[in-house]
Amino acid sequence: MNKKINTQVKIGKLILKNPVMPASGTFGYGLEFEKFFDLSKLGAIITKGLSILPVKGNKPQRLVETPAGLLNSIGLQNIGIDNFINKKLPLLRNYKVPIIVNIYGRTLEEYLLIAKKLQNARIEAIEINISCPNVKKGGMQFASDKNIIKKLLIKIKKIYSGTIIVKLSPNTGNIEEIAKLCEEYGSDSVSLINTVTGMMIDIKKRKPVLGNVFGGLSGPAIKPIALAMVHKVYKKVKIPIIGIGGITDYRDALEFLIAGATAIQIGSANFRDPLVCINIIKDIENYMIENNIADINSIIGSLNY
Amino acid sequence: MKKIPGNKMIYNGKIIFNKKINNLFYHLKIIVNNFNPKPGQFINLLIDESFQPFLRKPFSIFNYASNKLEIIYKVVGKGTEKLCLKKPGEIVNFIGPLGNSYIDFLNENNLNKYNYYLIAGGSGIASLNFLANWLKRKNINFKLFYGSKTKKEIIFYNKYKKIDTKFSTDDGSAGYKGLITDLIKKEIKNNLIIFACGPESMLHCLSKMNFFKSNIKLYASFEAYMGCGFGVCLSCVVPVKNNNDFEYKRVCADGPVFELKSLIL
Predict the structure, then answer these.
(1) Model confidence over A114-139: pLDDT tens digits?
(2) A–B: how many Cβ contacts below 8 A?
(3) Is this structure's pTM higher than 0.90?
(4) Is the alpha carbon torsion for B179, B185, B186, B187 positive or negative?
(5) Across chain A, which distance is largest between two alpha carbons, in Å?
(6) Given an 8 Å threshold on Cβ–Cβ distance, is A32 in contact with B231?
(7) N or C: which end of chain A has fewer CB within 10 A?
(8) Residues of A assigned a catalytic role
(9) Omega into A141 within 30° of 0, i.e. cis?
(10) In this complex, do A67 and B8 lie within 8 Å of one another by their Cβ atoms?
(11) What would the CATH number be for the domain defined by B10-97?
(12) Using a CB cutoff of 8 Å and minimum separation of 24, what contacts does B247-253 make?
């Protein structure tokens, strides 16, 4: 890396060497990408959403391609927080990269139990999923219930001392209000957007294509929606925003930074190109050198109109 | 064409030919060096730089020899509609080899102890051909069963006829008239290892046959809608028995080959 440029950004107490990280659910537990590149190059690693106990996930079909994107209803299949801490975390710690654990609970108590375990395991940051559209319990109810979010943040902050990021849903209709609420009650950052609720129908069978009927839409198809939401939230809150939604190259990433995101996550594009994260990191550096930008922080929120 | 530097699994290959071989199937041959696939594994191919399709598409490895990779495919959607237009000399990008192999279930020290049946239903031949070539190279006797709707849809009929393949067709235009699974029933013997690849109905039918009571082992390669192909998206799962319960396993990374009796069909 060129020493003249600074790509370091700060999210709460977390210092990222660059603003690029994979989105939860598209990067497994990180180790699956060891065969493709050196994980230490990432700004951070974000795990698949983890729950207190292992989760089987939804019945197939779980994914289908849509124009410039995909719909999924995986249903948060995961190995459970204890298996993660005991089996995956020690291996991930071989890399010099911050680990952000994405967590999900069916009840407030479950979130708190997981947070406590992550505090003990010295995980530096958690991303709280209050918005997975693909599970029947919890999920959406949490995402739009201000009272629960308030309670959750107050209680979790007493248990967990690392950086707290709340992942927001585009499906609640009031993402700016929810972001503001998260800021008020001590969240260090918000990440947005999670997938957009959608569906696909098999016209021959007149049945939904996905086993779960509804799924979450992601990929380039949702990028303009995500960008608008990031910018709207940027105008409302002072805490750093992590932009997510349809990023496939450095230009997309820069759009999010200019719109006000301090960092970005890359989701569906990891499936198409496992090297996309490190290519974007390299391309952002090249862009900065070519355009004489010394500090990436000068790009953040630089949109003018 | 060389491996893309810095990783162990992403390749660029140059197309030698890409041609229609009957009313249903295309045959694609690519030059790719330092590739080391095993029978039953697959590649996940990037159709082009556009987002239509957005995801890579998985293809069974039909054969790999002398730096040449072959796949057989049907045009089924936007990806293969574009793939079939690609010309010799064009470069294709793919990830591979992915998944497990039929031969992972074999013990190389006592290969000759068993009889081997390979059961291909329709496009299932695209994956079993590579295994047939592997067994041939090892001088292991095997019998290939190849079922199809009609003779016209059978690929390389003459080549397979030469190795005493047992054909079946729905219309009787080649070999036994009827289902491949009915043909198998008549041929069952002891010390048998069966490898199967074909439509779900065929695998379903095989799983219902009383193979498991005798010393017959039955392994099948499965197909499922894939997102990534390398084990992270958890889309292509199948229910696998686990004590009195089940768990979802990934076709792309835990499979595509499973012992048939371990699955809940």
Answers:
(1) 999 999 999 999 999 987 555 555 55
(2) 97
(3) yes
(4) positive
(5) 60
(6) yes
(7) C
(8) 132
(9) no
(10) no
(11) 2.40.30.10
(12) B247/A56, B248/A56, B248/A57, B248/A60, B248/A77, B251/B99, B251/B222, B251/B223, B251/B224, B251/B226, B252/B58, B252/B98, B252/B99, B252/B224, B252/B226, B252/B228, B253/B98, B253/B99
Are the beta carbons of A60 and B51 separated by less than 8 Å?
no
Query: Over the stretch B117-129, which tens digit does the pLDDT of each residue have?
Result: 999 999 999 999 9
User: Cα-atom radius of gyration of chain B, to the nearest Å?
Assistant: 18
Look at residue A121 and give its three-state secondary structure. coil
Please report the ipTM that was assigned to this predicted complex: 0.93
Q: Which residues, other chains included, contact B206 with Cβ-Cβ below 8 Å and sequence gap of 6+?
A: B119, B181, B184, B194, B196, B218, B220, B260
Following DSSP, what letter does each residue of B37-105 receive, concatenated? --TT-EEEEE--SSSSS-S-EEEE--EEETTEEEEEEE--SHHHHHHTT--TT-EEEEEEEES--GGGG
pLDDT of residue B1 exceeding 60: no
Whether the CB of B186 is below 8 Å from some CB of chain A: the reply is no
Tell me how far CA of residue A106 lies from CA of A31, A160, A173, B89, in angstroms. 27, 19, 22, 54
Distance CA A218, CA A197 (A): 9
Choice among A286-295, B163-172, B204-213 with the minimum mean pLDDT = B204-213
Hey, what CATH topology would domain A9-298 get?
A: TIM Barrel (3.20.20)
Q: To the nearest whole angstrom, how far is the Cα of A66 from the nearest Cα of chain B?
A: 8
Q: Note the CATH number of domain B102-221.
A: 3.40.50.80
| A272: chain B residues, CB-CB within 8 Å | 46, 54-56
pLDDT at A1 over 60: no
E-strand ranges in chain B read: 10-20, 25-31, 42-46, 57-60, 63-65, 68-74, 91-98, 115-121, 142-148, 166-169, 176-177, 192-197, 216-221, 237-242, 245-250, 257-259
Report the chain A residue with the minimal C-alpha distance to residue B249.
A56
Q: Which candidate, B193, B249, B262, B230, places its Cα nearest to that of B42?
A: B230
Band of pLDDT at residue B185, cut at 50, 70 and 90: confident
Closest C-alpha to B250, from B107, B37, B42:
B42
Which residue of chain A comes nearest to B10, CA vs CA?
A36
Q: In this complex, do A77 and B238 lie within 8 Å of one another by their Cβ atoms?
A: no
**Residues belonging to chain A with any Cβ–Cβ distance to chain B shorter than 8 Å:** 25-28, 32-33, 35-37, 48, 56-57, 60-65, 67-70, 72, 74, 77, 219-220, 248, 268, 270-275
Could you tell me if B124 and B102 are in contact, meaning their C-beta atoms sit under 8 angstroms apart? no
Q: What is the pLDDT of residues A277-304, one digit of tens each?
A: 999 999 999 999 999 999 999 999 999 9
Q: What is the number of other CB atoms lying within 10 angstroms of the CB of residue A189? A: 25
**Domain B10-97 shares a fold with domain B102-221:** no
Average pLDDT along chain A: 94
Q: Is B51 on the interface with A (CB under 8 A)?
A: yes
